[in-house]
Design goal:
By secondary structure, this protein is mainly alpha-helical. Helix content is 60%, strand content 5%. α16 crosses α18.
Length: 352
């Protein structure tokens, strides 16, 4: 009894997290069945074989990452839904109404990606199917989550869903849990990249399969972050800190990435100039944020030097704040709560 009590006492929140991969074989089953079929039949196969039997994570993935919202909205209006009525629906009702439409749109978007990058998808197939048997990944994730819980003892983690998407997202968080775009992290030095857009060719060499560990822990940090306090306004500084803090705390839990990302290489070489630009724009809203973050499609001359360079600025501020703190555990909590981004910036002393 004493031994059992001790074991229960040291159980980590990471132990109860499920790693769910069952949607990946369904995707590749649909991929094989759809080969050579006409367009309408391919859409039907992807819907019925991959999307409709999907896990709760895949249902969320369709809604937040796969569907084209403009296409879905246009089809709803064409089906007789007034725009004003759509805008007034509460979230739960909106999801029920749009589900059949976003399912079809998600299938179309997936087929478009596979058709645009056929050699890439074919090359990463074996790796995506190996998530649950790759102990470096699965054990690494559990170790990382356990260390994150040691940094932040209040942490509780949702389940992790490994999915196939359109190369648009490495990971995100939704109601069902952490959602990972496995295809984006499944390349290796032999994977053909020539079909991909320029931003992807530059970034994919850094998306190695083992990097899924730090990517999952990054998303796990997001699940611990607190909502923006009432009365505050969203801006570039808050967004950069939100993502940069997730990068920094994930690094505390997992260790530094084996391969430097382009934004880190560029940032270290141009830190002062980036900081001057960031200070001028850090109170800006959506249009400003999109030139600093989530900006893979932004032309190279308009992205402040590197894709997602805003993440890196937030990471540097978070690191400076943590380095100056005498109580490290309290610093982690304060970063996660992010009650006042301006105060965090000021207290960090960051000014390269």
């Amino acid at each position: 009894m004493l031994v059992l009590s001790l074991l229960l006492a040291v159980q980590s929140p990471a132990d109860s997290v499920q790693i769910i991969t069952r949607d990946i074989p369904n995707f590749w089953r649909a991929y094989d069945l759809a080969a050579g079929k006409d367009s309408a039949e391919r859409v039907r196969i992807v819907e019925t074989v991959y999307l409709q039997p999907g896990s709760p994570g895949l249902r969320d993935w369709m809604r937040v990452r796969l569907m084209n919202p403009d296409t879905v909205r246009a089809r709803l209006v064409a089906a007789g839904w007034p725009r004003a009525r759509l805008d007034s629906l509460p979230p739960d009702s909106s999801r029920k109404v749009t589900a059949p439409f976003y399912e079809r749109s998600a299938a179309e978007q997936l087929l478009r990606a596979v058709g645009s990058y056929p050699r890439y998808y074919a090359a990463v197939r074996p790796t995506t199917l190996s998530v649950d048997t790759n102990t470096r990944v699965t054990q690494g994730i559990r170790r990382g989550l356990t260390r994150l819980a040691a940094l932040y003892p209040e942490a509780r983690f949702p389940n992790i869903y490994f999915l196939i998407g359109t190369l648009s997202t490495g990971g995100t968080v939704a109601q069902s849990g952490m959602l990972m775009g496995t295809e984006q992290s499944a390349s290796d030095p032999t994977t053909p990249l020539e079909e991909l857009p320029d931003w992807a060719r530059k970034n994919m060499p850094n998306h190695r399969f083992e990097q899924l560990v730090v990517l999952v822990v990054h998303e796990a940090v997001h699940t611990q972050q607190k909502p923006m306090p009432a009365g505050q306004h969203d801006n570039l500084l808050r967004h950069a800190l939100g993502e940069g803090i997730a990068d920094f705390i994930a690094e505390l839990a997992v260790g530094p990435r084996a391969t430097k990302q382009p934004r880190e290489i560029y940032g270290l070489a141009h830190e002062h100039d980036i900081w001057v630009d960031f200070q001028d724009e850090m109170q800006g809203g959506d249009s400003t944020i999109r030139t600093w973050m989530y900006n893979g499609m932004v032309p190279a001359g308009q992205n402040h030097g590197a894709v997602d360079i805003g993440y890196w600025v937030g990471y540097r501020i978070a690191g400076a704040y943590y380095a100056r703190a005498t109580d490290k555990r309290a610093a982690v909590r304060e970063l996660l709560e992010l009650r006042d981004p301006v105060a965090v910036l000021r207290q960090s002393g960051y000014a390269p």
